[in-house]
Amino acid sequence: xxxxxxxxxxxxxxxxxxxxxxxxxxxxxxxxxxxxxxxxxxxxxxxxxxxxxxxxxxxxxxxxxxxxxxxxxxxxxxxxxxxxxxxxxxxxxxxxxxxxxxxxxxxxxxxxxxxxxxxxxxxxxxxxxxxxxxxxxxxxxxxxxxxxxxxxxxxxxxxxxxxxxxxxxxxxxxxxxxxxxxxxxxxxxxxxxxxxxxxxxxxxx
Length: 205
Hints:
The protein is α+β, with helices and mostly antiparallel strands. It has helices at about 10-35, 95-110, 130-135, 145-155, 160-165, 190-200, and strands at about 50-55, 65, 70-75, 80-90, 115-125, 140-145, 170, 175-180.
């Protein structure tokens, strides 16, 4: 009597397992090599704009500064720390105060890294300083600067350098390079997070 041949088992479960294992690889390949599918993440999520090429800190002769006592000040003395920078007139209207507020809070929220940062407010005229700055923003270094010299460094790539000087905020790295500009103070959480990311991945300062 002839023994019947055993029935071949279905290969579907095996094929399903192979498909599940290969799916992530296929997805990654498609995401990388076929951007038209929209699977690749869009660029970076910085709120601040990276300045390329970075611009080195000016020499004292090219950016003449005086401190609160009227004494000459060389910004290069602050190399070794991250600098959070804003600029505005001595009267410091609401828009100016807003920038100081955002940078102060961004600074204070950096936890153990707080000592790696300094805050600079460039005063762009000879008007008396708004007393609110002394009372509410202690720790901010106020330095009087010529707005033309300041704009030549901070906003040289802007269509309206003087207007941008009053709107933007900036970051200088510990090597003295101007490397990031924030468009305004309207997104304080994003400013804080960008600064946190810089400090997290930096091995300097």
